[in-house]
Amino acid sequence: MNQSSDTVVMVRPHHFASNPETMADNAFQSIAQQGLNVAKAAYDEVTKAVELLQSKGVKVHLFEDTGTETPDSVFPNNWFSTHRTGELVLYPMYCNNRRKERRADIIEFLQETYGYEKTLDLSVLEQEEVFLEGTGSVVFDHDNQLAYGARSKRMNEKALELLCEQLGYQPIAFDATSSDGKPVYHTNVLMAVGSDFVIASVDMIRNKEEQQTFVRSVKNSGKALVPLTEQQISNFVGNMLELEVNSHKLLAMSETAYRSLTTEQIRQLEQWVELLPIAVPTIELGGGSVRCMLAQVFRKP
Questions:
Q1: Residues 29-69 pLDDT 10s
Q2: In principle, which of 60, 162, 211, 298 could form an S-S bond with 84, CB 3.0–4.6 Å?
Q3: CB–CB of 297/8 below 8 Å?
Q4: Does a structural domain hold residue 2?
Q5: For position 161, which CATH number holds?
Q6: How far apart are CA 153 and CA 123, in angstroms?
Q7: In the 3-class helix/strand/coil scheme, how is 148-161 assigned residue by residue?
Q8: DSSP secondary-structure letter at 86?
Q9: Is 275 left (phi over 0), alpha (psi -120 to 50) or beta?
Q10: Nearest to 96 by CA among 116, 72, 115
Q11: Which of 297, 259, 301, 300 is CA-nearest to residue 278?
Q12: CB 11 within 8 A of CB 45
């Protein structure tokens, strides 16, 4: 199983704003960023990000979001994921206006282009107030069939277990909180998994037993653990995604994240990947960063 892919889906927003519905539990979000300037800046950031990724050989399927009711549409990784084993998974979303991001045209395009044989629709769990927000809530180690998840309103452990049962993965759930005791709202701000490394803030897993389980799991997976501080997490350093074009690995991240890495961490990561910083300061006001903007597309081998 391969950790990375060379293809992503991105959504360019026309009415980006800081989502009032997600403000309560997303500590990464800035208050009330809206208006034409913010929307235009976010639109331009996506345009430039697409150009940069394409210049590195990444295949980008770009969709436009012209709707006014979907302020977070720029983060498509939360509502679907694709898998080499032939599944397309749809996820249950915590906020009402985020459920409107699910698009039949994107689902159809992916099914027709990549021939996913099975659509696993977990979105029905919304009716039971059970949520699991895609690769925001779940960070997959595809090489080792592991699924890491930090418990929160948006990561229900039962839903994680149900997903893993269907995919044949092993769930690894834990509590992760900031120093003021707030749960980390999405696992993918806490950690990222590459082919050769896992980058994570282990200290934010406060329960010693769960922390040891996590560290042991990374060690057993044969990947190097690159530890992050809570300060780095607040600068989106955990929110990275490895991509691979013709055996050349790239690590996409925001410029905010890149500037927060230490010289030693950069040296360490550059053994395995080319670091690719992308400027998305406006989009980060919405509480997500580069990883959240990239929904990976895996083809069946």
A1: 454 555 558 889 999 999 999 999 999 999 999 999 988 88
A2: 298
A3: yes
A4: no
A5: 3.75.10.10
A6: 15
A7: EEECECCECHHHHH
A8: S
A9: beta
A10: 72
A11: 259
A12: no
pLDDT, tens digit, 9 for 90 and up, residues 58-76: 999 999 998 888 989 999 9
Instruction: List beta partners, residue 200.
Output: 191, 227
Domain interval for residue 129: 7-296
Neighbours of 236 (CB within 10 A): 26
Rg (C-alpha) for the chain, rounded Å, is: 17
Site of tokens 């021939």 = 115
Q: Please tell me the distance from the alpha carbon of residue 260 to that of residue 257, in angstroms, as a whole number.
A: 5
Residues in the chain: 301
Q: Which of these, 182, 161, 185, lies nearest to 173 by C-alpha position?
A: 161
User: pTM for this one?
Assistant: 0.94
SS3 146: strand
